[in-house]
Amino acid sequence: MKTKILVSACLLGENCKYNGKNNKNEEVIALSGYFELIPVCPECFGGLPIPRVPSEIKDGRVYSKDGADLTDNFLTGAEHTLYIAKESNCPAALLKERSPSCGFGTVYDGSFSATLCEGNGITAQLLSDNEIAVFGESKVKKLIELYS
Ligand code: SF4
To answer: What tens digit of pLDDT does each residue of 3-29 get?
Structure first.
């Protein structure tokens, strides 16, 4: 039986990104040869619409570009994603880099000026806090090496 891995749905080609598009990545899709992929979109789970105004993290909270505090939506989405990870027994997640939900290690700095800073998306942080290993899409090979 293949190991189950959570994957950001936008990387698999689902049009769940803030602008109604996706981040389709063939290398990520090819992971289905090694794992059972469980698609998740924390921002959709948190009740946010598609399309939606983009958001960034500032001082531990999440704000849309038009100034709405969406922290509760992001926390709800993160909890739902963690629930799925635990129910599915996923040891790891492959998530979209730099997203305020899915990014791990580096995210945008909250100024909406395409500036990056150190930090984790809300969901990536919660998964990591619960011993689920988080990888970005540039670390596909590492994920295969460690978990297949
Ligand atoms: Fe992709 Fe994650 Fe953003 Fe959903 S929340 S669109 S899965 S990066």
So the answer is: 999 999 999 999 999 999 999 999 999
pTM exceeding the 0.90 threshold for the entire prediction: yes
Contact 22, 137 (CB under 8 A): no
Backbone angles phi and psi of 123, in degrees to 5 = -70, -45
Tell me, in angstroms, the distance from the centre of ligand 1 to residue 14's CA.
9
Complete DSSP assignment for the chain:
-PPEEEEEGGGGT-S-STTS-----HHHHGGGGTSEEEEE-HHHHTT--SS---EEEETTEEEETTS-B-HHHHHHHHHHHHHHHHHHT-SEEEE-TB-TTT-EEEEE-SSSSS-EEEEE-HHHHHHHHTT-EEEEGGGHHHHHHHH-
Q: Ligand 1, closest atom to CA 23?
A: 1
List residues near ligand 1 (CB under 6 A).
Answer: 8-10, 16-17, 41-43, 96, 99, 101-102
Burial of 61 (0-12, 13-18, 19+ CB in 10 A): middle
